[in-house]
From TrEMBL:
<feature type="binding site">
    <location>
        <position position="97"/>
    </location>
    <ligand>
        <name>FMN</name>
    </ligand>
</feature>
<keyword id="KW-0560">Oxidoreductase</keyword>
<dbReference type="InterPro" id="IPR036661">
    <property type="entry name" value="Luciferase-like_sf"/>
</dbReference>
<keyword id="KW-0503">Monooxygenase</keyword>
<keyword id="KW-0288">FMN</keyword>
<dbReference type="InterPro" id="IPR016215">
    <property type="entry name" value="NTA_MOA"/>
</dbReference>
<feature type="binding site">
    <location>
        <position position="222"/>
    </location>
    <ligand>
        <name>FMN</name>
    </ligand>
</feature>
<dbReference type="Pfam" id="PF00296">
    <property type="entry name" value="Bac_luciferase"/>
</dbReference>
<dbReference type="GO" id="GO:0016705">
    <property type="term" value="F:oxidoreductase activity, acting on paired donors, with incorporation or reduction of molecular oxygen"/>
</dbReference>
<feature type="binding site">
    <location>
        <position position="151"/>
    </location>
    <ligand>
        <name>FMN</name>
    </ligand>
</feature>
<dbReference type="GO" id="GO:0004497">
    <property type="term" value="F:monooxygenase activity"/>
</dbReference>
<dbReference type="InterPro" id="IPR011251">
    <property type="entry name" value="Luciferase-like_dom"/>
</dbReference>
<dbReference type="InterPro" id="IPR051260">
    <property type="entry name" value="Diverse_substr_monoxygenases"/>
</dbReference>
<protein>
    <submittedName>
        <fullName>F420-dependent methylene-tetrahydromethanopterin reductase</fullName>
    </submittedName>
</protein>
<keyword id="KW-0285">Flavoprotein</keyword>
<feature type="domain" description="Luciferase-like">
    <location>
        <begin position="24"/>
        <end position="395"/>
    </location>
</feature>
<comment type="similarity">
    <text>Belongs to the NtaA/SnaA/DszA monooxygenase family.</text>
</comment>
Amino acid sequence: MSKPLKQIHLAAHFPGVNNTTVWSDPRAGSHIEFSSFVRFAQTAERAKFDFLFLAEGLRLREQGGSIYDLDVVGRPDTFTVLAALAAVTDRLGLTGTINSTFNEPYEVARQFASLDHLSGGRAAWNVVTSWDAFTGENFRRGGFLPQGERYSRAREFLATANELFDSWHGDEIIADRAAGAFLRDAEAGAFVHQGQHFDIHGRFNVPRSPQGRPVVFQAGDSDEGREFAAADADAIFSRYSGLEEGRAFYTDVKSRLARYGRRHDQLLILPAATFVLGDTDTEARELAHEVRRQQVSGATALKHLEFVWNRDLSAYDPDGPLPEIDPDVSEEHIARGRAQVRMYRDPLATARAWRELAAAHHWSIRDLVIETGNRQAFVGTPDTVARTIDDFVQSDASDGFILVPHITPGGLDEFADKVVPLLQERGVFRTEYEGTTLRDHLGLAHPDDARDERAAS
């Protein structure tokens, strides 16, 4: 008997602070005006996507002592945007990145429970940590948290938030049209938590929401991050672009679930992916090349190289060879608050490898940054892209993809109109929503049902 086809999960990422967005394109819209978010979200819902995803930035980025001015900044607060979108969408999930290092469990739990109520059960939380004291300078406690304790706090933060969500049960509140809502159980919302990072007690004042808890996403790729996802997350983002790399990540993370009493299908693997469509595969490749040149200007390429070299490289020609001088490996880094600082743990080894690549392919600085900075990208005709996405999912390299268009808010339209119908024809993507909550879309059990299942096993 042949293996049944897996259903593909698709989501849409409204790009934030990054170099994916080609903001110089005349078709690019505002990242602040609400109309941009509305168009993007309603396109995703029209295409029957699972959810919309917003990243978050807690501080303007700096490099060489100046504000980094080569990509888009200024997007409004995540909770504000998602709550507003709840009013102009009906089924689309609403996922926000909220930091566990500098926030507090009670506040975040209250915000997510409220969003889940306002949206009718469509809230999701991408749990992230901040590793640098630079971002911490914006907050009361500054950079107090050692890097090694980030996941310890994150795990306890999520566990504490779950205790708050679970402090209510469905039968503890009575809705009365005349009197409003009142408690049936005097202990509803009561909580006590004592731990390494949090010592709180009181009453949680938001009743149990439709999903019980928001869907939980996690983005870490370290061993700690993978373990955190296997224990507590409903989905994990993947950065692996190749089929074999994707399969290896998929197998590794899914294999960790059993030790936490979880099934293979209780954690979804969802890489981010860009896309470029054309009438022919050749035309699409040519368009993709143009897009990458727009995304990585000469100035952007030099700034990116400075992440590794830790030196001012503004005097170098971005269309010329890589610097012969070695990176500065001192503790003081030229780029403050940049995620890329973590990606290059051995700058000297990275520089050697990049020089070898550049020499072998006759790449300039800009060529190198373009070629080494690629994320998963689907390039081709709509049929080619649909077939490739399906191949990845059916081959267990992912459970779906979070699509990141290079133009917002209209960049998702072509995918929705041309690729989604082909996936539907293949029988691997829904033609209508079958449920009302994000858990329904993702095939995830309600927390109460999942808890009962674990207890029974």
